[in-house]
Amino acid sequence: MNIALKAESINKYFYTPEKFQALENISFEVRQGEFVSITGKSGCGKSTLLYILSTMDTNYEGALHLNGQAVTGNKQNALAAFRNEHLGFVFQFHYLLPDFSCLKNVMIPAMRLGKFSREEIEYTAYEKLKMLGVEDQARKPASKISGGQQQRVAIARALINNPAIIMGDEPTGNLDSRNTAVVFDIFRQLAEEEHKTIITVTHDNDFAHKSDRIIEMMDGHIISHG
Description:
Largest sheet: 6 strands, mixed
CATH topology: Rossmann fold
CATH class: Alpha Beta
Helix content: 25-40%
Shape: globular
Order of helices and strands: EEEHEEHEHHHEHEHEE
């Protein structure tokens, strides 16, 4: 199986109010189609690590490969284009535009990518909503649907450009147990049936233990690869 993500000797420092090493010698691989949870107590460095893995933070030491490409040292414009095409993001808060319809929210990353016509993008966006069971909400403003539905729309948006890797930062953090189970099942299906690589930071131990592998962190180190 192909390697979807390879982190080699990642070190990260913060310099205010004084020099502090947030990540120390982080190295691991994630295979294509693997569903991985990164866990650890607050302040252990897991969100800092995800920010680097997502190419948002480029101020680190070490090397990062995503989807077979070396991304360390690339210019911001190239990284933004890479993210839009190869990575999908699901956050604790859905970050939908409240006055836009659910369908338009899903379409935005594809419109930005500019590879397909508006008609093709609208069709694909509707199909993603259908896959996630919220196609009946397509024309409603995002502010008018439930929290669980909003997170499913956010997942549809993350999938619109057919990314190889989906990264989640506490993707079930604002959801009740029923909707958490729905989101987990969606991620599981994406990994097993579409061979998407799923990498999530989570505080939810039940969620983590049902994923393929847990990477546990403490004080800026990986203490277990699962």
